[in-house]
Amino acid sequence: MTWIKLNVGGKMFETQLSTLTAHPTSTLAKMFKSDLMHNDPVHDGVYCLDSDPQCFQHILSWLRYGTVSIPTTLDKKMVMMTAKHLGLDDMAKQLEKECSGKGAMTDWMKLNVGGTIFETSRATLTSHPTSSLARMFEPNSNLPPATITQDGVYQIDACPLSFAVILNWLRYRHLMLGQVRAEDVMPVADYFGLEKLQALLTKHIQKEAEANSKVLTCMEDGVDRLEDVLQQLQCELGGMQDKMDDMKIEVAGVATGLEDLWRIKCEVANIASIMK
């Protein structure tokens, strides 16, 4: 591992040779290739580079990590021109795109959220400017998503079902829950700092609670009414039983009367036969 010391515009930097030659076709890499060395070190083995040290600091970070992160206090155009001067065309193109502002918000983004692939525009993801989700995906963000695959897919560790609700809300500003519970979406909305969506979810949860309370009250009232009806039916059935008992007694009385009448008829018939 070869360690290089550089004096860039009067400021000292130290890094590995492999970092400076990470882009072999760049002017910077050619300056430090052993077979094309055009920059002999001064005393103490320090190489001199005539460039703006603030710009070079961010270029060096890009060479190390592959990510552009430039504070608003620094002019991106200066960094872009320094990158062009050093032959770092990929970085220069990325900065040129951000500086022009054209197409940045219409970029098509692919996200892997909890194993589910989503596709949307950068404008949708940044439509709630104060949210952490917007800060993740705004151009030149200082809070990028945790990881980006080689295919340019942003990986986010979150519930895909809840994220689908969030994405539709960002698109249409309407709460489209489908089969997802508002209680499940709430912590994810809180994680991404979507205050307006949180307020909407809170209202929805309150309305659901009120509706459920009304349904429960109606059910309780229905049970009470059903008990009243059953008690009334029980009373009526008891009265009918009493009437049935009375009818049995009356029928028994009628049967007894008929039996007595049959006996009288038989006696009369006997008397009539004797008189003849």
Walkthrough of the structure:
The chain has 276 residues and is an alpha/beta fold. It has ten helices and seven strands. Strands 5-4-7-6 form a four-stranded mixed sheet. Strands 2-1-3 form a three-stranded mixed sheet. The longest helix has 81 residues, at 195-275.
What descriptors fit this protein?
rod-shaped, 276 residues, alpha/beta, 58% helix
Shape assignment: rod-shaped
Side by side, the strands of the main sheet go 5-4-7-6
Instruction: Give the mean pLDDT.
Output: 84
Structural class by SSE content: alpha/beta
CA distance, first residue to last residue: 155 Å
Order of helices and strands: EEHHEHHHEEHHEEHHH
Ordered list of secondary-structure elements with their pairings:
Elements lengths: L2 E6 L2 E6 H4 L6 H6 L13 E4 L3 H13 L10 H10 L3 H12 L7 E6 L2 E6 H4 L6 H6 L9 E2 L5 E3 L3 H13 L9 H10 L3 H81 L1
Helix pairs in contact: 3-4, 4-5, 8-9, 9-10
